[in-house]
Specification:
The chain is built from 12 helices and 17 strands. Helix 5 crosses helix 6 and helix 5 crosses helix 11.
């Protein structure tokens, strides 16, 4: 038996078709989710633009919905009717990294995600099926969220979880100065979470409208890289000091170079954004040796991060509304993708 589900299928570079596809009923260890909203992350955009030419595919990993059914002999605290947010991957709970609490780097999950780029379906469709009305999901990849949270906001639990992972790794202390480079969607996520963790949040952004949006979302101050010495700009508003933490949310060489000029001795630089294409960083090792700075990175999140993100959103501790550009119905998936790939746009969400 299977369930008929409308889905946004990326059939070729730059082309999305809404089709009715079969979704299997949940088996043991699975939950059927009636998905209500899915945001278009850069991952989905790269499938659409051909950076990852894997077709046909139904992707989407920033998802919210309602538990529709629970597979036989499946043990989970979730119940039918619960509202849930969904993350990108689950964990095996068996490998070394899972045992060490690093399930975001699960070795088995990497193999599972790679396998999803092949298809054993008759229609040949690959993917994780977040852009579908229904999907079968590992319950370990779901967290409950309050029923009064709008689905388009609940879907952003996953990107907020990535910011939670980043800021937790940075161990931000009360009153520290955090500079976020870039005020796009993920810059906004890091602004929201860093502020909640008690930081003095400063945003470096070229675009005036985005600088103003960052301030309205809660940033304490902004820097304009085009307005002269940016390090001096920071010192002028920060008691003569540079930043304890710099979070780079733009995958550009210039942003990485800017970060190195903004971080204080013994400070930390977080390379949050991936780079396409990747340009090697030109760093004098003596600068790191003498200043004691730490350069690190973060990608994805673990289950704890996702749970914490769902609480931040569900309990209205933070508002993710500034991250949302527009909500489209599933039937307008082509238009939604075309808007999502425009550089100046925030998160585009598909409603189902």
């Amino acid at each position: 038996m299977s369930i008929q589900s409308k889905a946004a299928v990326i059939v070729d570079k730059g082309k999305v078709e809404v089709k009715t596809i079969p979704i299997p009923e949940p088996k043991q260890g699975e939950v059927l989710v009636r998905q209500k909203a899915t945001a278009l992350c850069t991952l989905e955009q790269r499938f659409f633009t051909g950076v990852f030419p894997v077709y046909p595919g139904v992707w989407g990993h920033e998802v919210s919905g309602i538990v529709e059914a629970i597979g036989p002999n499946t043990y989970t605290p979730l119940k039918v009717g619960d509202h849930v947010a969904r993350g990108c991957g689950s964990a095996c709970d068996q490998c070394y990294l899972c045992a060490m609490g690093q399930d975001a780097k699960c070795e088995v999950e990497k193999m599972r995600l790679k396998a999803q780029q092949k298809s054993d379906r008759e229609d040949g469709i690959m993917g994780i099926f977040g852009l579908s009305e229904y999907s079968v999901v590992d319950p370990r990849n779901l967290v409950q969220i309050s029923k009064d949270t709008p689905f388009e906001q609940a879907a952003l639990s996953e990107p907020i979880a990535c910011a939670v992972s980043s800021t937790n790794k940075l161990d931000i202390q009360l009153g520290q100065t955090v500079v976020v480079i870039g005020a796009g969607a993920m810059g906004m996520a890091n602004i929201l979470v860093s502020k909640y963790q008690g930081a003095f949040v400063v945003v470096s952004e070229l675009d005036e409208q985005r600088r103003q949006k960052a301030l309205s979302a809660g940033a304490h101050a902004v820097l304009n890289p085009n307005a002269g010495d940016i390090g001096q700009q920071l010192k002028d508003i920060n008691d003569g000091r540079l930043a304890d933490v710099v979070i780079v949310t733009i995958g550009l060489e210039q942003a990485n170079e800017q970060a190195m000029g903004l971080v204080a001795p013994n400070g930390k630089v977080m390379l949050f954004a991936s780079a396409h294409p990747a340009v090697p960083m030109n760093i004098d090792p003596n600068v790191i040796h003498r200043s004691g700075i730490t350069i690190t990175g973060s990608t994805s999140k673990n289950r704890k991060d996702l749970y914490q993100a769902s609480l931040l959103i569900g309990k209205k501790i933070i508002s993710v509304e500034p991250m949302i550009e527009k909500v489209f119905p599933l039937e307008e998936a082509q238009l939604a993708f075309e808007m999502a790939i425009q550089a100046e746009k925030y998160r585009i969400v598909l409603s189902m």
